[in-house]
Amino acid sequence: MTVTALPRVPYTGTARDAELEHWRAVARRVADALAADALARDRANAQPFAEVRLLREAGLLDLLAPAEFGGAGGHFETAFEVIRILAAADGSISQLLAYHYINQSSIAFYAPAEAQAAWWRRTVEERWLWGDSVNPVDPALVLTREGAGYRLNGAKRFSTGSGVGEVIVVNAQVEGTGELLAFVVPRDAQGLEIVDDWDYLGQRLSASNSLVYRNVRIEPADVLGPVTDEPVSTLLTPGIQLAFANFYVGIAQGALERGKQILLGRKNAWFLSAAETYSQDPVFQRTVGELKARTAAVAALAEKLGRRFDALLSLAGAVTQPQRAELAVAIAELKVVATEAGVEVANRVFEVTGSSSTQSGVGLDLFWRNVRTHSLHDPVDYKKIEVGAYFLRGESQPLSLYT
Predict the structure, then answer these.
(1) pTM of the entire structure?
(2) How many beta carbons lie within 10 A of that of residue 46, not counting itself?
(3) What share of the chain is helix, strand, coil (3-state, %, to 5)?
(4) Where the protein is mainly located, per its record (predicted)?
(5) Which residues, 6 or more positions from 110, have their beta carbon under 8 angstroms from its beta carbon?
């Protein structure tokens, strides 16, 4: 990768209370709507066009778009909290929005300053949802120079949002030069096949389809810019990991809330218990208390790092590699505990809700299926190694789309 300094990113300062409160209220309204039929929609496993309309109408797609270009001018801390709130109701749609925020911000991380205004105006005016096709462990795409532009061939799996997004961010190396470019492909581009094959255990409405590119034309105007190792540009990856951690926490919070409803609905008690109801039994109170406390601690760490992310991002081209590395490791720490808390809470909540809560119509399993599926995105053990290597020896992992 080549080093190209970006003069600025269009993000400044940190979120104020009024901003946070406004978008929390918006997110809760959307979450309530999603929660009403989350299980039925999960079972239908249809492309989430209706859910995207709900996000769009609520103004959530443009939360991070700069106000000067028609967006809400919000901060990542706010976006991460929105992700967390939505995940408590529907992990799939939370993932869809989380990836949109990161993909849309490719404008800031990859496009030169003089080109950003046009991109921001288009995404706001045309109300785009941004999908992606950047999975680095999949077979490589072939980007061949042709005249002033390029031709794209190949395939990618796990392309979140591609089934419903108006545009798709793609990363590919230029054949013969090794230059890695980020560019945008419309969902209806000639030669692009969207394979409707996302049929997995969880996150079923994340529109994470496979894509096949057959001589797709990439014009110069479609190119955002080169993917570089300039420090502020590489903050995109810690941002992705921070988004993941937030929806793991949100899923844990949702599982706890649903478990609470079920537990309070149990009118009797275990026959050996002196309590009148299960919710009054210290055994069940202890389990719930343990899971609640752990989730609250991880949520507090997520909130702290959301603000730190905005603060560092505000430095733009002045961000140093040591600053970037320190924040990336702090986010890796969060990723470890958020993954473990999310999976544990979504699993152990069944201990207090009883065998009847495993009925298919109850839907408590949806939280576990969602967090278990996405938590396998990249091995959490390597995040532990990342944290340990930095703590013991000050060593940072090589830059990648995972670190």
Answers:
(1) 0.95
(2) 14
(3) 55, 15, 35
(4) cytoplasm
(5) 182, 224, 225, 226, 227, 233
With contact defined as beta carbons under 8 Å apart, do 314 and 224 qualify?
A: no
DSSP β-bridge partners for residue 195 = 210
Express each pLDDT in 318-354 by its tens digit: 999 999 999 999 999 999 999 999 999 999 999 999 9
- Residue 173 per-residue DSSP state: E
Structure tokens belonging to residue 220: 């110069």
Element (H, E) at 217: strand 209-218
Residues 255 and 388 in one domain: yes
d(CA 244, CA 240): 6
Q: Identify the domain containing residue 295 by its residue range.
A: 233-393
Chain length of the chain? 403
- Roughly how many angstroms between the first and final C-alpha of the chain, as a whole number? 15
Parallel, antiparallel, or unpaired for β 167-173 and 130-133?
parallel
| Number of domains making up the chain | 3
149 and 285 part of one domain: no
Least confident of 124-133, 305-314, 340-349, 390-399: 390-399
Give the number of other CB atoms < 10 A from CB of residue 3: 10
**Domain identity same for 167 and 39:** no
CB neighbour class for 381 (10 Å; exposed up to 12, middle 13-18, buried from 19): exposed
Domain CATH number, residue 271: 1.20.140.10
Q: What is the CA radius of gyration of the chain?
A: 22
Contacts of 269 (CB under 8 A, 6+ apart): 275, 276, 277, 278, 280, 281
**Residue 9 belongs to some domain of the structure:** no
Q: What tokens were used for 183?
A: 């560019």
Any residues with CB less than 8 A from the CB of 325 and at least 6 apart, and which?
Answer: 390, 396
**Could you give the CA distance from residue 121 to residue 70 in angstroms, rounded to a whole number?**
7
My answer on whether 237 and 219 are in the same domain is no
How far from chain centre, in Å, is Cα 107?
Answer: 17
Q: Nearest to residue 3, comparing CAs of 207, 232, 170? A: 232
Q: Are residues 357 and 253 in the same domain?
A: yes
Of 142, 2, 124, which Cα lies nearest the Cα of 63? Answer: 124
- Residue for token pair 């230029």: 174
Residue 1 placed within a domain: no
